Every structure is written in C-alpha cells, then in structure tokens.
Amino acid sequence: MSYERGLKALNLEMTEKIPHTEYLDHPGYVRLKTGFDLNPDDPDEFRLANAAIAKVMDYDLFWNIFERPITRGRITKMGRAYFHENQGPDYEVYCPFKTVEEVLNFDPVAEYGIPDVDITAKIFQQHYMENQALYDSMVYTGGRYHTLFSACIRTFGWEMFLAGAGADYERFDRVLEGFYEISLAEVKAWTKTGIKAYICHDDIVWSSGPVFHPDWYRKYIFPRYEKLWAPLKEAGIKVLYCSDGNFDAFVDDIVRAGADGFIFEPITSLERIAEKYGKSKVMVGNIDCRILTSGTKEEIRAEVKRCADIGRDCPGYFFAVGNHIPSNVPVENIEIYLEALDEFGRRS
User: What pTM does this model have?
Assistant: First the structure.
C-alpha cells in the first residue's frame, strides 16, 4: 500500500506495480483479518474496521463519498434485498409521489435546500483530514453519490422517475436543474478541502445499457456534468466518474464532459476504454465478482491476469473487484485473489 503509488497513478505516472482498491462488505473476512466488526450500527468500530482491512488488503486508494444527509423533504423507500450478518433485508417500500404531475412540479431546492458552501466546506474538510490521517497509507477521496440521475432515483424511486421524466422531458429538465444546483454547492465545498480526487457517482445505466434514449443524456445530463466538474478541474482535483451497469455507449461523452477517469463494473468494457484512453485516463476495476464468488482457483487467477494484461501498460489502472466483494464470497477465494494481484500486478 502506498499513498505515493496511488497519487502517481491518479497523475498517470507508471508505478512498479499496478495499484489497488476495493469496495468490500464482508464482515467475516474483516473480522478474521483485523479483529474488528464491520457493523454499520457502531460507526466508530465500522470506521476502524474499514481502515484496518484497507491496510491489510494493500489499498492505494480508498473509495469514499461523503455528502450532506437529507434532513427534510420527501424521498422514496425502495427496500433492500441484500443482507448479511450485520444487515438484514428491508421490506418497507413507499413512494410519496402518486402522480406524474407531482414529479414534474417537484422543486429539489425548495424541498431540500442548497447547502451553504463555506459551512459545508468546513464539515467536508474535517471529514477529509480525519480520514486521510486514518487511511494514511493510501489516497482518501471526496465525492458525492446522489449527483443527478441517482438523486432522481432516491427521491422518486424508479417507477415515478421514469414516468415523470418520460412524460415531459422539458418540464423534467427543471427538476434536474434543482439537483444540479445542490450537487454544485457540494462540489464547490469540496474544492476548499485539499482532496486530490473526487468521485462523481451517478448510476445512469442498467446492465443492458442506457435507460433513456442516448440523446436524452446528451441534452440533459452530460452538459451538466461538464459544468459541475469545472470547479474541480480548476482546483486541480481529479474527477473519477463512477457508475454501475454498462456505460460503454457514453464513455466518449463522459470524457468530453471532463472526467479524468472511470470506476466501472465488469459489464463495461475495460478493453475498449483501455484501447482508446489507457494512456490518458484513470481506470478502476473490471474484475468480475461473479468469478470471485463461484469460480475455481484457475478461473480467479485467469480473471486477474486478464485485467493485469490490459492494465499493465496503462499508468492509471487500479485493480478492483466490481461491483464489490460481498459477504458470500468464500474467504479462500479472497486469498487466492490477493495472491494473484501480487503475482500478476508487478510491472518490473
């Protein structure tokens, strides 16, 4: 693990080995390797557990987003199917929006408010300084999860989001503008903190590709990304774009908007991105969690080698399992995976 190695990769400088990060939600493995309990109901223990396992697993960058919580206004509850020993399923599903007109008349700024930039900057800076000290051997990022598209999903839920946006693109544009204004205030706050990299998370696609016609994104989403990222670019902060699903169709659009790199799942093509942007952009991920979960030792090693063979000549490539390492991955498979990273990740 190395802060210097992570920072070099963000700046597209070759390192002696391919750097590494993960998104791990495996209480059993964390307890086995660190003695800490990965329990979100105990925030202090949870924080220490994440920092400890990041060092054990040799991260060079820690994926972090931190945003102002919603303390007023309406949001949709979509439930949760995923569970492990510290987190059960949530069967409560409720949407406060009953009609398309309610969606189209929604004003995010009036509902949630725009955070004060200076006050928010102090909160973000304290968070960053405390955690960069805790994660001292790796680069600790800033970022926002609910940027535009994901903000709509959280507020309306999928059904009413699609119904409202699809009913009237122009009226829904005003809704998107409100979410943009909220996100922009947080972006401006992050520019005052000293972070080296900012993760813009926005789940704009499904596993099959775009949710809306591509022209919709090019008119309503990507121009806002460009404006949103401009303060970060001016501050010299690297912008890493993160989305689940398959965003192959939009890689060039995201580059034109100003992204310095991508964080993506296995269904977005590492090969295609590396062929066009391997020397000029950061690339994080692509190792398939399905293979890590149920593959043989040979299959796990082959999957790591596939990504290493592509990423070895790309200075900004980071190993990572996409979407994440969940609690049903066998411990022995994680160990096989980490050994393969060490073997195949060396550049010299």
Answer: 0.96
